[in-house]
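name: query_chain
kind: protein
chains: 1
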Amino acid sequence: MAKEIDRIGIPVVQLCSITTIARSVGANRIVPAIAIPYPAGDPELEGSEERDLRKELVKRCLTALESDVETVTEF
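structure:
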């Protein structure tokens, strides 16, 4: 679905733990997640460390959204 949304001109980023699946379905912008049970965080970290980790993920996703890509690109 991400590929089709991107095709009509709306950039999409797929944040996922298993990037090979995202590649196989044709997602153009892929940001690797942290882990399968916690893709956007790490409960083992302290509050401020986890917040910093999440901010970094969001920044990578925003960078991916701003980037023009022609083929599958992992950020």
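note: The longest helix spans residues 47-66.
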